[in-house]
Write a structure and sequence with these properties.
Layout lengths: L3 E2 L7 H10 L7 E4 L2 E3 L9 E2 L1 E5 L2 E6 L1 H5 L7 E4 L4 E4 L1 E6 L1 H8 L2 E2 L6 H14 L7 E4 L11 H4 L9 E4 L4 E4 L1 H7 L11 E5 L5 E7 L3 H4 L7 H16 L3 E7 L2 H12 L6 E7 L3 H11 L6 E9 L29 H13 L3 E6 L2 H18 L7 E4 L5 H10 L2 E4 L1 H7 L3 H9 L6 H6 L3 E4 L10 H10 L19 H8 L1 H6 L17 E4 L16 E6 L2 E5 L3
Parallel strand pairs: 2-7, 3-8, 9-16, 10-11, 11-12, 16-17, 17-18, 18-19, 19-20, 20-21, 21-22
Antiparallel strand pairs: 1-6, 2-5, 3-4, 5-6, 8-23, 12-13, 13-15, 14-15, 23-24, 24-25
Helix pairs in contact: 3-8, 8-9, 11-12, 12-13, 14-17, 17-18
């Protein structure tokens, strides 16, 4: 196929016209040859070439080695791909990004497989951080059989440290006695709306707080300083770039947005960020958009995040039927339904993007009703409402997501993580439509992928492996867990590129390697289209580029 060039390599039509008179260099800044270039642009239109050229921060040309090398000049950097694969910059559509930066410096409990190891790590961290709050964690009680941790495990090893360490899904956390005291939580403290204080047989708090109950402790944890926020962001950015992530959507806060703006103004934001704020502040965001616009190609805003329910792991996801392993509950709404509905409709009327967490089947159906009401009440527009997670669906809701044009913003790694124990929670029938990637794509829905970092690792290759194989991380499902919901490598790459760009209203500049698009790209160490799918998780990013600038390059 003939090489495809960007028509105006000097940056704009006006500049290109001037170049006809004064001369303008059309040499590429970088050329990549000798590999495979997956151009993206959707599964149907995605093509594979062997070479690519970049100039002035944009894709200059895509084609064969011979054709693309014609765009090289004396100063052009030439990269031999040696058979490696180039893909558009990978976009993580759902992160808790600055929190992830803090967690990189917090206690690490994600792979603590026994209560003894849990206790040892907390003790070690507390000893090296005297009198400080111990946070982070991302523990998983399923690793040691499902018993929830208790404050008595760690009280004796943390006498001077308040401790509040989260479960990996962020929907419950363990506080030690010192943290409970600071928060004023006793046996007489009532459960707050949308939350649960887990109690022992004697009525005393065990230390585990679910969903909104966590806010009681969050309220007494000191706010981080600007310097601490900046350091957390720097750590998170470096971590993301090393995994080939060139853009993230952050389910964040106003302090997070301010942190991004400081970094951007100081030239310290090498990746792209879509900064989302809580739904309760929708009026403030509407006013902010009115006064500040919606940002630029590096940092932008205009979305609001809400929660319908909790999580499966915490038995707080909202279902029609009770939990199989806890028939006393069918989950809960973490927000008042009337208030949340009013906020969502009002934010939509202000032109903001609705980005809403829903896990259980009843939560998803409730949210789809609200999205339909938004269109009926506020009129048709390109709203791109998003369901974050869309985890447990009914067959009817799968088709309704497609019909309403709603984006299913999903995290494939959750399928191979939760798949270890999800069936005991909700039984064999309901899991058939859990992380229903195949059914959603077949229905014609938009599916965007992300990680939910720090709930899951911020590594798109692990997500790609999960979506294609659905092999649970315990090795118990070598042929895939709910294997009928597997999808292809091309479909998964599209969900991490074109579709995630679409989910953020950025598909006209990002998500594909067509000439004229912004030069965000990744060189992967191996061609994920050709390797055995079980080997995908070992593939790494060798080079990450944003706006034509290398922001990460792996050493030899």
């Amino acid at each position: 196929m003939a090489v495809r060039d960007w028509a105006f390599p000097c940056g704009s039509l006006l500049v290109a016209m001037g170049a006809m008179l004064t001369g303008c260099a059309s040499d590429a800044d970088v050329v990549l040859t000798g590999g495979a270039v997956w151009t993206g642009g959707g599964v149907a239109s995605g093509e594979v070439q062997t070479a690519l050229a970049v100039a002035d921060g944009r894709i200059l040309a895509v084609g064969s080695d011979v054709e693309v090398l014609k765009r090289a000049g004396p100063a052009t950097r030439r990269i031999d791909l040696a058979g490696r694969l180039v893909v558009p910059g990978l976009i993580d559509a759902h992160t808790h990004f600055i929190a992830g930066g803090f967690d990189l410096a917090g206690v690490q409990l994600r792979d603590a497989a026994t209560p003894q190891e849990f206790i040892r790590r907390v003790a070690q961290f507390a000893a090296s951080h005297p009198s400080e709050w111990v946070t982070g964690g991302t523990w998983d009680h399923e690793l040691w059989g499902g018993a929830l941790p208790e404050r008595t495990w760690i009280d004796s090893v943390t006498p001077d440290n308040p401790v509040f360490v989260s479960r990996l899904d962020g929907h419950m956390a363990l506080a030690n006695s010192r943290a409970l005291h600071l928060a004023g939580i006793t046996a007489d403290t009532p459960d707050p709306p949308g939350g649960t204080i887990v109690r022992g047989p004697d009525g005393e708090p065990t230390g585990v707080l679910k969903d909104a109950a966590q806010d009681l402790v969050f309220a007494v944890i000191p706010e981080p300083t600007e310097a601490e926020l900046d350091r957390a962001l720097d750590a998170a950015v470096a971590h993301a770039a090393s995994r080939g992530v060139t853009m993230i959507t952050d389910m964040g806060t106003w302090s997070g947005l301010a942190t991004y703006r400081r970094a951007h103004a100081g030239g310290r934001l090498p990746i792209r960020v879509y900064a989302v704020v809580p739904i309760a502040t929708w009026r403030r965001m509407a006013e902010y958009v009115g006064s500040e616009g919606r940002g630029d190609s590096r940092l932008f805003w205009g979305g609001v995040k809400a929660f319908v329910d909790g999580s499966l792991g915490s038995t707080t996801a909202w279902f029609y039927e009770p939990y199989t392993d806890d028939p006393s509950t069918s989950g809960l709404m973490v927000s008042d339904t009337a208030e949340l509905r009013s906020q969502l409709l009002a934010a939509d009327s202000a032109g903001l993007q609705l980005i809403v967490h829903a896990i259980g089947d009843r939560a998803n159906d409730w949210l789809l009703d609200v999205f339909a009401a938004a269109e009926e009440t506020n009129g048709a527009r390109d709203r791109r409402a998003r369901i974050e997670h869309a985890q447990h669906l009914t067959p009817a809701s799968i088709h309704r997501i497609a019909e309403l044009g709603v984006i299913a913003s999903m995290q494939p790694y959750h399928a191979i993580d939760d798949g270890r124990w999800a069936e005991k929670r909700i039984g064999p029938e309901r899991i058939q439509w859990t992380y229903a990637f195949r059914d959603l794509l077949d229905a014609g829905a938009h599916v965007a992928f992300g990680s939910d970092w720090t709930v899951a690792p911020l590594d798109p290759m692990l997500g790609l492996y999960a979506a294609v194989t659905r092999r649970t991380i315990d090795g118990a499902n070598p042929d895939g867990w709910v294997p009928q919901q597997r999808i292809t490598v091309d479909e998964t790459l599209a969900a991490y590129t074109t579709e995630s760009a679409y989910a953020a209203f950025r598909e006209n500049a990002l998500g594909s390697l067509e000439p004229g698009m912004l030069a965000d790209l990744v060189i992967l160490s191996r061609d994920v289209r050709e390797v055995d799918p079980v080997e995908i998780e070992s593939v790494v990013a060798d080079l990450t580029m944003v706006d034509g600038v290398v922001v990460f390059e792996r050493g030899p």
